[in-house]
Amino acid sequence: MSDSTTEHKGNEERHNQFLQEKLDNALRRLEQARPFAKIQYQTQVLALCGRIIGDAEGTECLYALAPRLQESGIFVGTDWEMPSSLLPQLVTNTLERGEKMTVVLDCLSQLRMLAIAQENVRHPTVSPEQARDFLIQVLSLNLKYLFDSADETLRIRLGELGDAVGVLYRFLLEHIGLDNILDGLIKEIWRILAQRPIQVLKVKAMVTRIAVMLSQNKGEIASINIGASRLVSALFGPTQGCQDDPGLEPYRMRLETMDLPALQQEAYGFSRAMHDVGLVSDYHASFLRWLLEQGQGQLISDALGLSSTGLDALRSYQALIHTLIEEAIYPETAQAIYGLSLLLENGALYSSPIAPGLWRQIKLPLSSHAKATLSSVLGDALEPRVYLLASVISLLGQPLGVAQGNNPTCQSARALSMWSYNDPDYLLHLIYQCVRYDSVLKHFEGCPIDSATLESGLAVSAPLDTDPVSIILVPHLDRIYHEMGRLCVGRGQDPHRWINPEFHGWWVGRQFMIAVDVGSGNLMDYDAFIEQFYNSYHPYYNGNQPVIHPQPVGIAVTDSNAQFIGWHAITLLRVALDQTAVMRVYFYNPNNDSGQNWGNGVVVSTQGQGERFGEASLPFEQFLSRLYIFHDDPVGEKGGAMVPAEEIEQVKDMALASWAAGRDACAREVEVQTLEV
Amino acid sequence: MTNANTDRGYVAILGWSLNAIDAIDRFDRRYIIVAPAWAEEYATANDIPLIVWDFERLNDRSMEIAQKLKDKGVDVAIPLFEETVEWAGAINSVLLGKPRIMSQSLLFRDKSLMKRRAQLGGIRIGIFEEAQDRSDIIHFLKRVNQALLKLDGDPNDPIHLKALDKAGCEGHWVIREPDDVDKITDDQFPLLMESHLDGWEFAVEAWIKNGKIQFLNISEYVTLGYSVFVPATPELEKYRPQVTAEIEKLIEVFEIDFGFIHPEYFVTSDGKMYFGEVAYRPPGFQAFELIERAYGFNAYQASVLMFDPKTTQEELDNFFPREVVDAKGHAGCFGVYPRRRVISELNIPEETEQHDYFEFHELGEPMANKVPKRSAFGTHWGLLHFFGPDPHVMRDLLKAQEELDFYV
User: Fold this and answer.
1) Among A448-462, A568-582, B174-188, which stretch is predicted with the lowest mean pLDDT?
2) Min Cα separation B209/chain A (Å)
3) Could you tell me if B8 lies within 8 Å of chain A, comparing CB atoms?
4) What's the CA gap between A62 and A68, in Å, rounded?
5) Would B295 be classed as within a structural domain?
6) Of A14, A37, A671, which has the smallest distance from its Cβ to B21's Cβ?
7) What ipTM score was computed for the predicted complex, to two decimals?
8) Chain A: nearest CA to B77, how far in angstroms?
9) 8 A C-beta contact, residue A218 and residue A264
10) Residue B48 covered by a domain
11) Would you kindly state where each structural domain of chain A is located, as residue ranges?
12) What distance in Å separates the CA atoms of residue B136 and residue A282, rounded to the nearest whole number?
C-alpha cells in the first residue's frame, strides 16, 4: 500500500470517528428530548445518518444502531412512527420523489424492519414474519436499486445519497435472501443486460449470489427458473468443458486433453452464451489465451462468434487482434471479449487510423497519475494499462454501453459514446493525450483550452463507478465542457448552441433549435420548434432522409409523475418505423439504465421495439414532447410534407402536461440556464 | 414536569422556545410558560403549562400578569427574548418585592441609558450620542473624524448606528460617508451612534447568583454577524482575568444580584477592554446550544438555577464544570447569507459537508429566486454547526465559510 493510500485510509478512519461522535451526541440529545421537542433534534440525527449511510460500513453501523434509533424517537411525529401502518408500495415513490431527509428516514425505517425481522428489535404491533414480508415486497418493487441506483431523478435530487440507497438495498437483500424475490430479480437482470452495458460488475455480483443460492437449494428452485440458469451458466459454465465450474486451472488441464472437434464445441459454446446473455465467463478469457499459447488461433473466430464481416476483419488484422488478446484479455477483463467481438463486427478497423491507433494504445506508457488513479479504483491484480486497454476495446466495440455512473457528467459520457460510434480514432487520440500527458487539448472558437490548467467542473472527484476510460478521461472532458460554458457566459443564449459543435465535432448540425427562452425559462416559438424537428428528422416530413451522424440533443427529464427534474444530454441516433409501424426515435442515454418512466405514459423502451443493443426508444411524438434542444444542418427545403397542425398540438399538449407546465406564462422569476448534467 | 421538586422554586418563562421548554421540562423545577396566544394549541396538545399573554402591549394591565403569577405561587420570571426583558423586570419587582429590579431592567432595554450608566460607573466605552434625525448622524460622523485628526480626503473612520431597543445585529448599521445616511429610514429613529472601536470583538456569557459569577464563558467572534465559537482560542482566553474583572464591574454598576447576562466587549491592541453593550437574556446564534455542546451542561437549566431564589449552594457547586479545561471540544456556528442575487437552490459545498468538524445545518430551500437586499447587518438564513478539538482549525474553518456559496 502506498503512503498516500495509507494516509487516505487514516483520514477516512478519523473522519468516521468524528462522524460517530457527532451522531452519538445528536442521538443522545434526541433521546433526552421530551416528545414535544423531538422534532428539534430529529433533523440533526437524520443529516448525520445521511452522511454515514454512504457505504457498507456505514449501513452496518446504522443497522447496529437500529434499536437505539427506534427508542430515541427518530420516527416520532412522522408518517413512519407506526411500522405496522407502512405500505411497501409507497417506498418507490419516497425514493423517487422524497426530499433527502425523507429518503434517509425511509432507509432507517427499512433498517428498523430488518432489525424486527432478525429479532434485534421487538415491536408490539409488527411480528418478525410481518417485517420480513414487508422487506420482501419492498425489495421486489425496487429491484433496480440492487444494480444501479442512479438514474437522473435520483441522482439530481440525492447526489451521493443515491449510491447509499443501492448499498442499503443490497444490504437488505443479503439478510432477507434472494429466493423470495428471485423471479423479479431475474427479469430485472435480463432487462439490464438487454441494454448491453460495459460495466457489469453489479450484475455479475447478483448472478453470483443467484448461483450460490441455486446450488444450495438444488431441486426446489433450480427447475423453475430457466432464465436464472442461463445467466448462471453464462458466467460459470457456458460450455461442456466447464459446465461444472471446475476452476480456471483444472479447466486448462481439461483443454489439454480435448481434440479439435471438442475445442470447436467449446468455442461455439462460449460465443453462443456471450452473445445470448451479454455476459462473458472468466473461462472464456482463459480459453482464448490458451488457444493463442497453443497456436490454435484458427478457433478464435468461433470463440468470438464472428460473422463473415468479423471474420474478414480478424483475418485482415490478425496480428493486432492476437496482440490485443494477449495484452488485454485476462479472466479479470473477460468482459472485454464481447467488445472485441463487436469491434471486429462493426467494421471500425477498416478505417485506416484505427489499427495504428490501437498499436499505439497497446504500447502506451501511462503517466504516474493515470496509473495511480486506475490502481486505486481497480486494484493491482493486473497492470493499470491492461485495464485501460481492455476498457478501450469495450468502448470501441460497444459505443452505446458506456454510462456516466453516479456522476453529473452526462455530457462527457455522451461524448465518449459519440466518438466511439462515429469518430473512434479521435477518441483514441484523446485517450493518448490524457494518459500520456495528463491533459487534453481542445479548441473553442479558435482558442486552445487545456484541461490541465482548468479547475474541476461538476465532477469534483474522478468518477469511480464507471469504466477505466471514463475514470481517466471524464474529469478532463468535464473541465473543458465547463470552461466552454464559462466562455459563453453573458451571451444571453443557451451555451450549448456553441459548445455542442465545438465539443463533439464538425458533424454536429450548425443550426441550433431551443424550445425555451434562456432568460425566463419560458417556452419560446414552441410550435416552430416542434415543426422544425419534424422537418429535420421525421422521415415523412424530411424527404425520407435517415439521420446521418449521431446528434447531441437536450431533453427535459421528467419523473414518473411527469414533473420536471432537470436538463439532460442524450444522443439522437435513428428515426425509424418499429415492427408495428410506429415511428420511433432511437437514442442513447448516458444514464446507466435507459429504461425510465418519464410520466404520463411516456415510458422509455429498451428492448422489443426495434432497439439495437444499448438503444432506448420512444414514439416520435412522445420523444419530441420532452425535447428542448436539437441541432440540424441548414440545408433549406427538405421536400417533405406539411406537418399537420394536430400533430404539433398533440406534442405541445404532452409537453405542457409535463416539464413545460407553467412555462407558457409570461411572468416567471428569472431562471438561470444551467448546464446539462 | 415529571422531575419537579416542590422544595425548589417555581419559575415563569417569558417567551416561547421549544429548546428552552424541553430543557426546563427535563429539569427539577416547576415551571409555567408565558407566551402569546399562537402557542396555545401546541401547548395544550403537549401538556405544556401555559399562560397566554400579549407582550406587545405594556400598559395598565401589566400588574395583572404579575399578580396572576404570584397567585400561582411563582417565585421568579425569566426572560427569553429581548422584548420580554422589561416584562421580567416588572414582574420580578412584584414577585420579589424589589421595585429597583424594574428600573434595572430598563437599563438593559435602552442602549443609550445602558451606555450612560456604564460610563457613570467608570466602565470604558467608546464615544456615543443619540440621534433624532439624519443631520445628527452626519454631524456625529464629522465630529468623530475631526477628533481623530483626519484631513479632508482621508478615508473616514466609520461609525455604528444601533436601534435603541433591538437585539443583536437587527437594526445595526455601519456608516462611513454622509451619503450612506440615506439608507436609514425614518422609522429607525431615535437611534444610538457610536464611534468605531478597532479591536477584537467578543461576547461573554455569565451566570450570576448572589452577585457572584458562577460560570463565565467567552465566545469568540470570527466575523461579527457571521460566526462564533466556544470556548475561545487561547489567544483570547488569556484575557480571562481582565474579562472577569470587567464583568464584576458590570455586576456592581448595574446592581445585578442574579440572572444571566450577555455583554459584548472590544479588546484593543494595547489590551484595553471597551464595553459594547449587555443583554439580560439568552444570546442569539444559538450560543446556549454551543455551550451545551462544548461543556455538556444545559444553559437554560443553568439560567433557571440563577433566577430561582430557592437554589442551594450545593446545587451551584455541583452544576457547572470548570471553565475551559472541562470543555470536550470547541463548538461553533456560522450564519449563512446568500451571496448571489439570483438563486435557485440550496447546495452545501462539498468542502463544508465533508469536513470532520461539520455537524449539521438548519438551512432551508429558498422560497423565491431573488434574494432580498440585505438591510443593516440583516438576519442570516440559517446556521451551520461545527464541533471539533482544535480552536484554530475551528476559527479558520468558520472564516473559510464566508467565501462559499450555499445558495446557487
Assistant:
1) A448-462
2) 27
3) no
4) 10
5) no
6) A37
7) 0.82
8) 22
9) no
10) yes
11) 3-177, 356-487, 507-656
12) 87
Are B337 and B378 spatial neighbours (Cβ–Cβ below 8 Å)?
Answer: yes
In terms of CA atoms, which chain B residue is nearest residue A30?
B22
Backbone angles phi, psi at B254, to 5 degrees: -95, 5
Domain hosting residue B170, numbered range = 128-195
Q: Which of B344, B356, B362 sits opposite A672 (nearest CB)?
A: B344
- Does B46 touch chain A if contact means CB atoms closer than 8 Å? yes
Start-end of H helices in B73-169? 85-95, 100-109, 111-120, 134-147
Both B146 and B190 in a single domain? yes
Q: Let me know if B49 is exposed, middle or buried by CB neighbors in 10 A (0-12, 13-18, 19+).
A: middle
In chain B, residues with a C-beta closer than 8 Å to the C-beta of A35 are 46
Q: Which helix (H) or strand (E) segment is A676 a member of?
A: none
| CATH assignment at residue B191 | 3.30.1490
Which CATH number belongs to the domain containing residue B19 in this structure?
3.40.50.720
pLDDT of residue A65: 93
Residues 6+ apart with CB under 8 A from B109: B82, B85, B86, B165
Closest residue in chain A to residue B367, using alpha carbons only: A669
Residue B366 falls inside a structural domain: yes
DSSP helix, strand, coil percent of chain A (3-state; round to 5): 55, 10, 35
From chain B, pick out residues whose CB is under 8 angstroms from the CB of A33: 22
- Say whether pLDDT at A356 is over 60: yes
DSSP conformation class of A36: G
- Residues in B closer than 8 angstroms to A37, CB to CB, are 18-19, 21-22, 25
Touching check for B357 and chain A: CB below 8 Å? yes
- Give yes or no for residue A84 having a pLDDT over 60: yes
Number of domains comprising chain B: 3
> Mean pLDDT, to the nearest integer, of A634-657?
85
Lowest mean pLDDT among A213-217, A298-302, A304-308, A512-516: A213-217
Of B160, B195, B230, which residue sits at a domain end? Answer: B195
Mean pLDDT of A503-517: 93
Among candidates A424, A417, A369, A341, which has minimal Cα distance to A589? A417
Handedness of CA A246, A250, A252, A255 (dihedral sign): negative
Mean pLDDT score across all residues of chain A: 89
| Contact yes or no for B22 and A40 at CB 8 A | yes
- The model's pLDDT over B45-81, given as tens digits with 9 standing for 90+, comes to 999 999 999 887 766 677 889 999 999 999 999 999 9
- Three-state secondary structure call for residue B355: coil
pLDDT, tens digit, 9 for 90 and up, residues B193-202: 888 777 788 9
pLDDT at A96: 81
Q: A14 and B356 in contact by Cβ < 8 A? A: yes
For residue A670, what pLDDT is reported?
39
Report pLDDT for A2. 46
Q: Which three cell numbers stand for residue B261?
A: 447576562
Segment B259-297, tens digit of pLDDT: 999 999 988 877 788 898 899 999 888 899 999 999 999
Chain B contact probe: residue of A28, A31, A36, A675 with most B CBs at under 10 A: A36
* Closest CA of chain B from A648, distance in Å: 32
Tell which wins on pLDDT, A417 or A663. Answer: A417
**A22-46 mean pLDDT:** 92
Residue B271 lies in a domain: no
Pair B31, B88 in one domain: yes
- Residue B128 Cα to chain centre, angstroms: 21
Rounded to a whole number, what is the distance in Å from the CA of B31 to chain A's nearest CA? 15
**B139 and B77 assigned to the same domain:** no
Average confidence (pLDDT) over A257-267? 95
The model's pLDDT over B135-164, given as tens digits with 9 standing for 90+, comes to 888 888 888 888 777 777 777 788 888 777
Q: Which of B159, B180, B195 is the last residue of a domain?
A: B195
Å between B196 CA and nearest CA of chain A: 38
